[in-house]
Amino acid sequence: MTRISKTAITLLILIVLAAFLAWRFLPVGGREEERETPAQAVSAAQAGTVSLSPDMRESAGIRTETPRPYIYRERTHAYVTVLDTGYLVDLRKNYLDAMAGVEKAGAALEATRGEYARMKKLYGDRNVSLKAYQAAEAAFRADRADLALAKGNLQAMKMSANQRLGSVLAGGAWNNTKLFLRLETRRAALLQVTLPQGYTANSPPTGLRIVTPSGRAVPARFISPATSTNPQIQGESFFYAASAKTGLVPGMNASAVFPTGTPASGLLIPASAVVWWQGRAWVYVQTGADTFTRREVSTENPVDGGWFVSGGFSQQDEIVIKGAETLLSQEFLAKPAGGKEEDED
């Protein structure tokens, strides 16, 4: 066999091998281009719609309603400490003692002031001695100093109480308010609610729900900003009061979900309207007489009863609040492979 023949045979073998490899590993008839990527499947699902006849809607129990307006504030977990109110008993006693001191000093001063005025007139008429006049004057000046001291002690005690408790609680001691009486007799628990460091409350809520260590939710009423913070947390603090019948005792620690930040307006999407698919939350909105369109909903802001949203929905949307799971099942019965029925049609 000549050298040229050997070369031709070698080239032929190589060509056949290349053709075999191309047939084995390359897509045939554009099959690769026809494959749907996961991203394409998700895109088709996001725009998913489903149609139900009136009979099917009735049997599935489909019910819709429009979302209601909702005012939302960012929330954070706050730390709650039950304070000892034994100090309030001493505060009320010290206040009464100080007031009694002022009244006694005032009464003594009134008596010596009258005597001093009488002796001064008699001395001017030369009817009493200088010694008697000076004794009356000394008694008057001493009682006047005692009254000033008693008033100073009362003012100092009030300032000390204001610094420790704030004007609302301290004022309750002076006026013997119902709140102070409940705290003093421990029919109510005094709570210090502290936000995490860095959080600020523009306006503390008048009502708050405290979660006890046993998991019980206890309503609490706002009293005033606290005059000091929890040294371990170093956050903004507030005083609240709750019924002592709930098991809150001094020294106990609890928690609360505390609203912070500026209020924002939006809508409440009910929890019953939400269905989950591919790790995301969706709702169905009625877009026609018999047509429902699936729309993604944000779950970044959970609230009581559902989720708060500030966009993507309007107050005129008819949202399916009952039967959404049926619609999801029906949608994917009609579209089991992420939109392949369009290709088949």
Structure description:
There is one protein chain. Mean pLDDT is 82; it is low at 28-46 and 337-345. Helix 5 (86-124) packs antiparallel against helix 6 (130-165) and helix 6 crosses helix 7. The strands form three sheets. Strands 3-4-7-6-5-8 form a six-stranded antiparallel β-barrel. Strands 1-11-10-9 form a four-stranded antiparallel beta sheet, with helices on one face. It folds into three domains: 46-73 and 265-338, conserved putative lor/sdh protein from methanococcus maripaludis s2 fold (Beta Barrel); 76-85 and 188-262, Beta Barrel (Elongation Factor Tu (Ef-tu), domain 3), CATH 2.40.30; 86-174, Helix hairpin bin (Helix Hairpins). The two termini are 60 Å apart. It is built from ten helices and 14 strands. The protein has helices at 3-25, 31-34, 38-46, 54-60, 86-124, 130-165, 167-175, 178-184, 324-334, 340-344; strands at residues 49-51, 63-65, 68-83, 188-194, 207-211, 217-225, 237-243, 253-270, 275-277, 280-286, 291-296, 302-303, 306-309, 319-322. It is of the alpha+beta class and 345 residues long.
Q: Features of this protein?
A:
Helix Hairpins; alpha+beta; conserved putative lor/sdh protein from methanococcus maripaludis s2 fold; disordered C terminus; 6-stranded antiparallel β-barrel; 27% strand; Elongation Factor Tu (Ef-tu), domain 3; 43% helix
In short:
The protein is α+β, with helices and mostly antiparallel strands and 345 residues long.
